Amino acid sequence: MSLVSLSLFRSQRFRTPWRCPWLHRxxxxxxxxxxxxxxxxxxxxxxxxxxxxxxxxxxFISRSITRMDQQEENISSTGRAVQTLATQVSQLTQQLQHxxxxxxxxxxxxxxxxxxxDSQPEPRLPTxxxxxxxxxxxxAFLTRCSMHFSLQxxxxxxxxxxxxxxxxxxSGRAALWxxxxxxxxxxxxxxxxxxxxxxxxxxxxxxxxxxxxxLLADLRQGDRSVSEYSIQFRTxxxxxxxxxxxxxxxxxxxxxxxxxxxxxVLDLPRSLNxxxxxxxxxxxxxxxIGHRACPNRPHDxxxxxxxxxxxxxxxxxxxEPMQLGRARLSREERERRxxxxxxxxxxxxxxxxxxxxxxxxxx
Length: 363
What we know:
The protein is built from 15 helices and no strands. It starts with a helix and ends with a helix. The chain is mainly alpha-helical. Helices cover 60% and strands 0% of the residues. It is elongated and about 160 Å long. The longest helix is centred in the N-terminal third of the chain and has 71 residues, at 30-100.
């Protein structure tokens, strides 16, 4: 068999069934040929699908890599922008602190150490007034000594020096007592506190509590000025437990009659301080106007009015007088009468409300 014949034989052996010449039938059955055909088609289809899948996967990977590169670039750009913003914020903060610097005092990073006690000189104080044993002055004396020690802590840095200083200020019977307790090394000499307590027990007889309240209830101005009366009143009021309303009533009740009569026609303040100030002004005004109008007149002003001539005042009363408690002067009228030195009751000159004859007749 030649080579051409062999080649033709190989190319066509599966295309046409080969028949045995002696059997006169095909070498492969029809079923076998169909199976071979399907196998070839399947292999060809798988090869096509594998090629397509490989191409799609390659494209997907390529797109993913491109997208990742873009995201990485975006992240880098964002990081650079954030860094730029942080730098700008830091610069603005420094500028703002620089602008605020002159307005507010700078806060030091490290607090300076407090100065040494020796670098601050103590104030030079006069020596407290001595104490001779007066019961009313005991607490005042001890209070002044306590303030003296507070202002000069380095000088009196020991309790023994405080006790010795107080004892050197004693005189009279108080000095005799101090000498005895110091010589006997009494326990009260161990500290200023114990010495103060013992001195209060021995010498202090100042009124307080119920005794101060009793004296406050019986207190009257008398012949004293309102200033002197108010000082004693406030001293006793500080020792008792009365409220401001009770003190207000007691102060007004203790004033002299002429002061009360002038005050009653005015608008009374509600506070104790306001009442005291009003009484002080009225007392000063009465004293000033009374001495200017009638220098030789007695303190109450009654005889001075009679000496000035009663028929002049009686002939001048042509209108109905103002009745105390029934009518109240206006503010302008009160100021006018005050400035002209007129009586606040009848409005005439020559006397004041406490010696007004019209008021006495109205009673």
